[in-house]
UniProtKB/TrEMBL annotation:
It comes from Alloalcanivorax marinus. Transmembrane segments: none annotated. Pathway: Bacterial outer membrane biogenesis; LPS lipid A biosynthesis. The gene is lpxB. Its EC number is 2.4.1.182. Signal peptide: none annotated. InterPro entries: Glyco_trans_19 (IPR003835). SUPFAM superfamilies: UDP-Glycosyltransferase/glycogen phosphorylase. This is Lipid-A-disaccharide synthase.
Amino acid sequence: MDAPDAPLIALIAGEASGDLLGAGLIEALRRRWPAARFIGVGGEHMAAAGQHSLFPMEKLSVMGITEVIGHLPELFRLRRQLVDDLLARRPAVVITIDSPDFTLGVAKRVHAAGLKTVHYVSPSVWAWRQGRVKGIRRDVDLMLTLFPFEARFYEEHGVPVAFVGHPLADMIELEVDTLAARRELGLAEDGRILAVLPGSRGGEVGQLMPDFTDAMLRLHRRYPALRFVIPAASAARRAQIDAALAGTDLPVTVVDGRGRTVMAAADAVMMASGTATLEGLLLKKPMVVGYRLGAVTFAIVSRLVKSDYVALPNLLCRKALVPELVQKDLSGAALADAVAVWLDDPDGVARLKDDFTRVHQQLRGGASEKAATAVAALLEETPR
């Protein structure tokens, strides 16, 4: 049995955004228990915070329903391996982070074997497949939500929940220094810049870069002085981006990583739907969101989704503040026209920044510390 001041804590993340959240939580938990040990699955940020990862997190990063099917045997094997390891080590708590199709399966198995479970980042049960809340109520001792509307949903369904806010809201200042970001990237301080973020996964970049490149070409003809900056999430993503740009004469700079800095340096952003849209909101950047799934995946998802929006800024503000171009509505022409609206409407940009600032203030307040406090309270409860 671990000493109360040196608990063994397992955290399992499946993608880059979860790695950042996990790292912040590990650091907050270590401030509470300096001798705590951390195991599970994570990326480079969680490793830097002191976690020992059973296998590389990248093995879990798969996009879409049909894309996952080809990887199912390996994913099942990894899950069995992970569950067996956790049951052998018996950590004080298992904290699963996002990636619900994989991590909630882990939570189900370890919870049934008597381990305490916490899930950090609510799956979108309020938007689609609401029946999942029954399994969450059975398998998860505590849900940690990033957004207040999610906490209300769980309270209504009898799931123990804590709204902690979003760590990014604490990490990003309310006022963004655009010039400093441009200097950091070695970009000219004057002129207008469009940040282009086609996603961090190979499937996303493959689906989006043709239309994003077409949009950049159209915008270049319309605004010859406009420059483009693209952050590549990895060497593999950079190779995809470079291939899509080959043969064009666009004034584009591709940088390795630093997506947040790229957005901070920009006047507007054209981007894939996902967690990065929250960063765009917190940076107060006008954006256009595009997304496309495989045809079969989209056919399945579109029958299950109950939300009017896919982009986090629109979900959080409960209204269509930023354009969403999804599936058949996504094209280079539509993207270019939507970006042009932001470039030509400074008053609209100012109103958008006011809305985004209100959301930013609501989400601030020490999310990692709040999450650590909620986890500690769970551990201090009488064992099940």
